[in-house]
Write a structure and sequence with these properties.
The structure is a single chain. The chain is α+β, with helices and mostly antiparallel strands. About 35% of the residues lie in helices and about 20% in strands. It is built from 24 helices and 24 strands. The termini are far apart.
Length: about 700
Amino acid sequence: MEYKQFLQIHQYQLASIPESLWEPLFKKLGADLFDAGEFLELHYGDPLDKYSLHVKKEGGLKKHGDIFLVDHAWTTKPETSRAQLLDNPQLVERLTSMMDISVDAEEEEEEHNHEPQEGDEVVSNFPDMEVDEDMVALVAKQGDVSEHRAKIALQNEKGDVISALMSLTLHPDHDAKGLKNLEEAIGGQVKRDKEAKAAEKKKQETVNKIMIEMWKYSQTYEYAVVDPSGQTKKESAWYIMDEVGSSMAHSDTPNCVCAPFIYVGRGTVSYSIIYPIEDIPKGGALTRDFVPADIKDPLDRKAYLQIFNNEEDAAELIAVYESDKMEDNEVKPFDQPFTKTLTNAREQKKAGSRKLRLYTTTEWVATNCKLENVELVDSEDQADLLWFSQDFKDFSKLTRGQKINQFENESCVTFKQNLAALVKSAYGQVPWSSTTYNLTSELAPFVGHYLWNEHHGHRNLWICKPWNLARGLQITIQEDLAPLVRLRDTGPKIAQEYIQTPVLYEGRKFDLRYIVLLKATHKVENDPSQGYEFQVMVYKMFWIRLANQPFELEDYDNYEKHFTVMNYGNYNLTQLLYTQFIENFEKEHADKKKWSEIQADINEAIKSIFAAAVVKPQPQGLGGRDKTHPYEAFSVYGIDVMLKDDVCQPVVVEVNFSPDCTRACKYDPEFLNNILTVVDPRAGNLDKALEAFNVL
C-alpha cells in the first residue's frame, strides 16, 4: 500500500493522531513491527501491586516522539466470551497471567458428605426432584443403605450416581475394604470422576474469575456489517490488549494516548496504538485515562472508576443514590385524563358514508385487512387513515380529517430510558415498574445504588438493555458492577433491577404481551382548538411467552432459562392460548389472586403509563392534552408485563412501538378489523369491535 492510499483509507482514524506520527505509524503497520520492547518494560509491584508499564530507554520518551503498535490478545463478544474461554485453555492461561489471577486449588466444601448418624434426621435438600427408580436401587445396593436413604442421597447430589455413592460410603464408619470393593465394582470410576470433577471445577472457577476481571482490561470498537437484507449496521467488538497495553495504569492526567486502530492493508487487522502526549523520563510509568471521553461530570467519573477499586469514593456515591431516592418520594399526584366515551354523534353518522381509505406500509395490516368498508389506497394524500411501520416525521403535512397511527414524541414511552424517566417524574418509585437507571445520564446514582445494596446486604442482580432494541437483542443479566458500567461504552444502555421472584408457569419464567390502543379524537368536529379526548384500551386477547427451561437464580447467560422471546432464534416456541393459560394458571396458583384481579391490576398499570404520557408536555410526554393539531391520532403498542412475588404484582417491562401482530391475527382473525373499527367506525360494527377491548 502506498502512503497516499494509506492516508485516504484511514483519514478518519488519523484525524485524532498528531500528523508527525502518521508516517511512522504507516511504516510500522506495513512491517507489522512491534518494537515497544526496545523502549518499554514491565514492572510488577513497583509502584502498583500489579503489572505496570515503564520507560526503559535512556533519555525517556518525548511528547509525540514515537508511536507503538500493540497486539490484541483476545477479541470477543460478551455473549460468546465464556464459551471461547472454556474451549481455549491456552488463552485462559495467558489471561490468568496478565490479570494476575490466583488459580491455586481451593479446598472443596463438604456439603453433602455427612452421613447421618443414628438418631439424625435424614433430610433432602431437593425433595421435589424426581430420580430414576433404577438408580435408586443401584445406589441402595452399592451403598448398603435403604432405598429411602439412597433416594435422598441422589436428590442431594442432583442425580449424580457417583457423588451419591461417595456421600454414602466415604465415611469413617465404612472400612477401607468397603471402599476398595466399591472402587472395584465401578471400575475405578470414583477416583477418575473425582479427579475430573476437581479439574472441571478449577477450570470453571478460573473462567469465572476471568469473566469478572476482563471488564477491567477490555476495550471496545465498532465496525460495520451487512445483514442478510443488505442493510448496513454497526456491531461492537470487545478486545484485551497484549501484556504491554494491558499493563498501562490509569491517571486522570494521563501522559499517553492509547486507542484502537483498524488497519486495512493485509486484510483488516485491529491493533491498538500508544503514543506519549507528555515527556516521560526513564523509569516513568505510562498512563492512560480509563474513563471514556464522553463522561465529563466528576461524579460520573468517580462512578466509572469504582470498578477499578476506587473505594474511597463509595460513600459519596451512596449519598447521591440516597438523595435521588428521597426525591422520588416528593412526587405529587395528578388526575388521569381519559374518558370512556369512545365516539361522538358525528362519527356514528359516518358509518353509512363512503368507504374508509387506508394507506399503509405495514405488511401485516395490508395482508389482514378484509373489511368491506375499507379500501387500500396507494397515496398518502388520498387516505383517511395512515398506518406506518416506520417512524413518521412530517406531521405538518397531515390535513384535517386524517388519522395517523403515531403520536409526536411517542419515544417518551417506547424508548426504555424515556419510559423510566416518565414514570419516575409522574409517580416516583412504584411497584409496577422496576427501578431503572439511564447509564448515560444516571451513572453516579446507579453505582451508588449498587454500593448501597452491597453495604446493606441486598443482592445485586441487574439486567442491562439497550435504549431502543427489541427481540431480546444485546440484553444481559449481571451480578457484578464492572460489566454493568462497561457495557455503556458500546452504546446507550439502561440498568434495571432484575425480577428475582417472578411468578412461574409450570416452573418456567413467562411474560405477557398485551396490545394497547391509545386514541386522540377532537372533542368538537371541525374545531381542533377545543382539544382532544383521549381513550386508552387493552385488547382482551393477549399472548404468552415462555422460557424453555425451569427458572433458577443462576446460570444467567442461559438464554432459554432467563428469557422468553423464542420466536426470533433457533429455539423451541411454546404456543399457548390465553384462555388456556388463565385456566391453567388459576389451577397452579390457586392460593393466589383470581385472574380477574390480576388483570385489573395490569390494566391499572398500563393506564397509569399513558396517563402520565398524555399529561406531561414534550419532551417528557406526548405534548400535553391541550396541544392540538388538525389531524387525529392513534397508536398500537405492544406492552410486555411480568408478574412477581406471592401477590402477583404486575411489572410493565417495556412498551414497544408498532409491534408485529401477525401472530395476533392468526389467533383472532378479527383482530385488525376490531382495531380499525374502534379507530374509525366507518370500518365496521363498532359495538361488536368494542367487545374485544377493555376500555380503561
